[in-house]
Amino acid sequence: MSGSLGRAAAALLRWGRGTGGGGLWGPGVRAAGSGASGGGSAEQLDALVKKDKVVVFLKGTPEQPQCGFSNAVVQILRLHGVRDYAAYNVLDDPELRQGIKDYSNWPTIPQVYLNGEFVGGCDILLQMHQNGDLVEELKKLGIHSALLDEKKDQDSK
Amino acid sequence: PAEVAPVRLQGSVAGVGAGVVSPLGCRPSWTTAMELSAEYLREKLQRDLEAEHVEVEDTTLNRCACSFRVLVVSAKFEGKPLLQRHRLVNACLAEELPHIHAFEQKTLTPEQWARERQK
């Protein structure tokens, strides 16, 4: 398939797992055990996605993603310096795994929510990252992307 | 680890049909009549989305189970944000997606496709 999206996506999907490391993630990242999210009713999920500005549903955790696509989401957020986000592991809870798909009417995991709104999966997040939309959306949430600082450094040289 | 080159099907391919056996056994038995093959998906997407161009790549061997990556170029995507475009594709393959483990998609308008091919 032509186009750079395929290669960039392939590179992200090959990144090593567990590259987070303990100190990098900060107190904001949390995995929901089966108790915390308690299954997948629409009401509960609605509350869950609105509780934090950035909410992701993954296979695995940010420290140990269990799937290449979930890992790609984690890596993109890391690139933008987003540390304070809620991460829920659907592998912990089959009701959550199905419930979140019903809630968003979206067939796959990972799922990304910004400001309580479903944004898309890994493909969409990657494209938003590449075309600058993600920086803009984070800015609207009051989150300053780390990539803006990188760019500033580069411009001043 | 070395990656096996994914199978790419564009246009009709002779030999793809009921005789194809998936090593991972992910295709349910009903698909021998209606083969959940890359070709089948390609035709369905082309038809339902009136697509100018469709590529379907069977990425099963690179992922853990029945997986596809698709590229769809259609005027129906014009003026629609990404999420809406992807939902159109999802709706087109609503029957098939429950049987697909991993699904990647790229959705372009004919104009975007023309620009990309120039790169």
Explain this structure to me?
The complex is a heterodimer of chains A (157) and B (119). Chain A has 157 residues and is an alpha+beta fold. Chain A has helices at residues 4-14, 22-25, 34-37, 42-51, 68-79, 94-104, 122-131, 133-140, 146-156, and strands spanning 54-58, 86-89, 111-114, 117-120. In chain A, helix 5 links the parallel strand 1 and strand 2. In chain A, helix 1 packs across helix 5. Chain A is elongated, with a radius of gyration of 15 Å. Mean pLDDT of chain A is 82; it is low at 1-5, 15-28 and 31-37. Chain B has 119 residues and is α+β, with helices and mostly antiparallel strands. Chain B has a domain at 38-118: 2-Layer Sandwich (GMP Synthetase, Chain A, domain 3), CATH 3.30.300.90. Chain B is built from three helices and four strands. Chain B has helices at residues 38-48, 82-92, 110-118; strands at residues 7-9, 53-58, 67-73, 102-108. In chain B, strands 1-2-3-4 form a four-stranded mixed sheet. The longest helix of chain B is centred in the middle third of the chain and has 11 residues, at 38-48. At the A-B interface, helix 1, strand 4 and helix 7 of A face helix 2 and strand 4 of B.
